Every structure is written in C-alpha cells, then in structure tokens.
Amino acid sequence: YAALGMAAFHALTHELTTPSTAGFSTHDASMGFYGDNFAILWIATVFMFLGALPFSILMLLMISGRLDTLRDPQIRVFASYVAAFVVAVALYLRLTDDMPFLSALTYSAFNFVSIITTTGFATGDYTQWGPFVAGCALVATVLGGCSGSTSSGIKAYRFLILFRLLANGLKRFVYPNAVVSVHYGDRPVADAMQRAVVLFISAFVTIWLILTLLLTATGLDLVTALSGALTCLTNVGPGLGEVIGPAGNFSAVPDTAKWLLSLAMLLGRLEILAVLVIFTPVFWRR
Length: 286
Known about the structure:
- By secondary structure, this protein is mainly alpha-helical.
- Helices cover 61% and strands 1% of the residues.
- Helix 4 (73-96) packs across helix 5 (101-116), helix 8 (191-217) runs antiparallel to helix 9 (222-233) and helix 9 (222-233) packs parallel to helix 11.
- The longest helix has 27 residues, at 191-217.
C-alpha cells in the first residue's frame, strides 16, 4: 500500500483491516478515496480474497509450497461464485454504462470480493449501478468465505453440502430406492454434519426474517430493514438504500434498531447455533 501511494499511517491501518476482512478505513469514503488508483484496489482485492481462505490451508501452502493444497472443495466453490459475480457485474457495467472493461472489472472485483468476504470496503455507492448490481450485492452478502477464515456469512462449505443434499434429494424422487451419500471431496459427510448445515441455514433465514420485521417496527423502510438485518448477521457492513447503503452509515438508525442490529452482529460472529443452544431449556438441565 505504501509503495503504491498511501501515506504510512493509512497504509498500516488498511493493511491491518484487509486480510482480516474487517473493512475499517481511515477515510469517510472508504477505499473510494483511492478509487482512481487501480493498483491499490487490486492489491486489496487479492488480500481480501486470501483472507477468506482457510488459514490452515494457507499455512500448509507456505510450509510445503505445494499448490495442490488449494484443492479443498470449499475453495473451489468459493472461487467459483466470486468469479461468477465479478464477471457478471463487470459485463453488465460494460454493456449498460459503456464503462471501459478494465474499469468495470476493477470496480466489480474490488466491491464484490469485499462483499462476499464480508470485509465491507467500498469504492462508492455501487447500488447506483442499476437494479441488477443491487440484487447481486444482496445475494453476495449472504455467501461469505471459507471455514477457518476471518470471514463471516453462511460460508462455502455449507453451500457445497446443501447443494449436494438437494441433488441427492432430487435423485431420490426419480429412484426412490437408491442409496446415495453426500461427499465432501473424497470423504463422506456424516449425518450429524448434514443436519448441522440444514439447521444453521434454517436458523439463519428465520432470524433474518424476524429481525427484518422487528426493524420495520422501529420505523425503518423495508429495503433498509431487510438489508440491514442481513448485512449485520453476515458482518459485511454496507446494506442497501440511502440510509445504510455503501455511501451511508447507521448513524440515522433509531436506537432500538441499533440494539437489534448489534445483537445480529454478535449472532453472526459467534455462530448462530452455538448462541441459540444456550437459550434452550435442555441445555440447562444437563
């Protein structure tokens, strides 16, 4: 960062918040302050991506130097949906706004890697790029990085297991007597892990909807409530709309809503099921 033009203090601060996927900036405009410096944006994009990979695998790669350590199935899933969003939005910006492709690819890669890795940096109000981009941002907020990283969200390995459960379920409709198993790479996934994935996603969606309703009761509009609940549950940061969008902040949100959103951030960071189990009567009877 310093070599690319950042002052020493700003370089140190952003260095600390990029691979940790924390997203704090010393500028009100976030990384938009450096929006014309594509080199800084690409460096940030690379290290946000690395911060969302499993640290155990990164350490193994550093020790062994073997690239095949990156063949973890969740890394492939994570890289696939990152690439899909980045390319789709870049093409959309090129075709609809006549933006030069390099600029479109740079802004798309930076902002959507930031969202998916739950870092929360932004170069500006990307929701002004059109409804398709705003929709992509809302979906990307859910995704998250890999297990064993600093990123939040649902995470890639859960999507991998969920989609394989769905594929096996559809296969059972065609062949009711078929014996099918869910695999993570070459290893079968235990029934307990399959249940945990379904429970987590069910709890995530349920809490998201309940929080949305509670936030609308505090006076927030539906877009702000819906995206605010989601972005706090996933610890991303920016939501949608004029109030909490990439160009806004949460200062105008009512105090009651701030408490609800603070609870959502804690739930998202501490793993939802681990917190919810504390409130079950059977936990205290053990």
